[in-house]
TrEMBL record:
Family: Belongs to the carbohydrate kinase PfkB family.
EC numbers for this chain: 2.7.1.144
MF terms (GO), sorted A to Z: ATP binding; phosphofructokinase activity; tagatose-6-phosphate kinase activity
Record keyword Transferase present: yes
Protein's name according to its UniProt entry: 1-phosphofructokinase
NCBIfam families linked: 1-PFK
PANTHER family in alphabetical order: 1-PHOSPHOFRUCTOKINASE, 1-PHOSPHOFRUCTOKINASE-RELATED
Any Pfam family the entry gives: PfkB
InterPro entries, alphabetized: PfkB_dom, Ribokinase-like, Tagatose/fructose_Pkinase
Keywords annotated in UniProt: ATP-binding, Kinase, Nucleotide-binding, Transferase
Gene: lacC_1
Domain named Carbohydrate kinase PfkB: residues: 14-311
Gene3D superfamilies cross-referenced by the UniProt entry: 3.40.1190.20
Amino acid sequence: MKPRNPVVVTVTPNPSIDRTIALGGPLTRGAVHRVQSVSDEPGGKGVNVARVLTLAGIDACAVLPARSDDPFLSVLSPTGVGYSAVPVTGTVRTNIAVTENDGTTTKLNEPGAELDAASIAALTDAVVGQAAGAHWVVMSGSLPPGVPDDWYAEVVALLRELPCKVAVDTSEGPLAALAAGFERAAPDLIKPNSEELASLSGADPAALEQSVQQGDPEPVVAAATALMDRGVGAVLATLGAAGAVLINGTGAWMAAAPPITPRSTVGAGDSSLAGYVRAAIGGAEEPRRLQMAVAYGSAAAALPGSALPSPRQIDLDAVQVVSIAPDR
């Protein structure tokens, strides 16, 4: 099921069926727990972005590897998200998230089905083909076995020949490989969390979050600026309860997260990225993009399990944006 002319193409090389197990109390290692609820949702970071955008009425196409009879597609289809599934031999993985009543989430992620060279080539071709008429391409998540760490960098380099904007949200080896190729494959936007930004800058992730909470975003700005000096267009640093910082070539802005009762962090970062892209597609300036990103991320964290926010659950007025580097 593919939109004819998707506005946004999301890329999820390692999709998953996300099974959320909700507990009524804290998780104790080695103990027996009674489960309050279990739910299955189509997952993978790019799929989450596509689901949030679809809820907002934006035509999105999720590109991913999956056989036509894979159980994952049976879970995805009812969401109304358009998709382009590249046939592979393996089965989409199942990830488990255990959520506690205070919002603490413990994740158990399977590695995913291995892709061979032909499947990788077909996935690359599908991304480039779908991206030809899109406004944004959002590439998110881990890479499955068989896919080299530099795959994101290779695809970004191909997409630079097209008019679409490119955002990447990944971590560990794929993020390091992307950074190593910034000179030829720098995306228009990257969305690191504190740990990912720290891995690129050598900073302490806890120190980055704490500095923003104390009203001193300079360490985050400095780390992001170093990435932009290597070609990245903008950095959206999502910092959990500390809020987020957005830096581009014209300025930097900070937004604190509004007070919420956290229920689950599953999909919060993906919702933030979707909020940014939604605002960008609407022609919003950077402060509004940041405001929308934080509002979406906060709304997701206030929802149970792997539920994702719709526009009616977004409270933009609760998010205050402050310019922190107006003369960049």
